[in-house]
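for the recovery benchmark. tokens below, seq after
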């Protein structure tokens, strides 16, 4: 199956990849669903929706503090590096990601569309001040919820999309444009249950793209795929990159 995926990517003229939390699992960042997923421990509506955040920012920050410790120290894994190498070799046009950890950019991917925003910065909703997420993490031991150093407000929110918030318009429009032009759509490490992100591969299929799914577990889109590989992205992607000479 890896050979078939490599053959499709080697002959593609406009291959696009959609990634999810699974591509960062081997960097130590827990996924949301599947074995050990964050949402097996917490109710996302209670800890990661815009309504729950505005009602009680501490409910969000208590979970984000735990996840931030791991995410802020995480390094790209071989899967991220393989995708960056494929792009550099001209086999991949862009990375569309649901992840907010920034690891694609750290590994060298150049065209990265962040559908769910970036966890690298935090904005005060009251005065608009932006600061690095790492600076806020450092205060969480003594400030829960964290306070804005500029106005003292307690509605500091990472620049990520919470449940109930719209996705960034530019990002979703660019992602759908890429999907419409794609001749190969690769999906890596996503359960493909969150929309409209999961619409991206559907738009690609409707435009005639061949779908490749690489995921540790079956997904609802396996049935539409030309190639399905149930495996770890940190192992499968480097093998594909090697086969296509990336
Ligand atoms: N390699 C490949 N796939 C993996 C690996 C791995 N090493 N480890 C886990 N997976 C798979 C899991 O089996 C799961 O199907 O990655 C998938 C991750 O799915 P989710 O945790 O649902 O992540 P994602 O699809 O990105 O979630 C979408 O939901 O909660 C929101 O905003 C959050 O962006 C996230 C969105």
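predicted aa per position
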């Amino acid at each position: 199956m890896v050979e078939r995926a490599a053959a499709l990517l080697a002959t593609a003229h406009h291959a696009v990849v959609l990634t999810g939390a699974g591509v960062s699992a081997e960097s130590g960042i827990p996924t949301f669903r599947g074995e050990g997923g964050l949402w097996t421990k917490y109710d996302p509506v209670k800890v990661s929706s815009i309504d729950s955040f505005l009602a009680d920012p501490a409910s969000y920050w208590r979970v984000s503090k735990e996840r931030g410790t791991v995410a802020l120290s995480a390094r790209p894994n071989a899967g991220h590096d393989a995708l960056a190498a494929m792009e550099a070799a001209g086999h991949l046009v862009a990375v569309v990601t649901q992840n907010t950890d920034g690891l694609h950019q750290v590994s060298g991917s150049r065209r990265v569309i962040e559908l769910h925003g970036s966890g690298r910065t935090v904005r005060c909703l009251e005065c608009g001040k932006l600061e690095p997420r790492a600076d806020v993490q450092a205060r969480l031991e003594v400030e829960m919820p964290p306070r804005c150093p500029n106005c003292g407000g307690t509605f500091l929110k990472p620049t990520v999309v919470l449940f109930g918030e719209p996705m960034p318009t530019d990002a979703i429009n660019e992602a759908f444009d890429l999907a419409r032009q794609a001749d190969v759509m690769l999906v890596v490490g996503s359960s493909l249950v969150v929309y409209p992100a999961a619409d991206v591969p559907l738009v690609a299929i409707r435009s005639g793209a061949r779908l490749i799914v690489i995921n540790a577990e079956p997904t609802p889109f396996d049935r539409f795929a030309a190639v399905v590989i149930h495996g770890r992205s940190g192992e499968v992607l480097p093998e594909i990159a090697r086969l296509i000479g990336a």
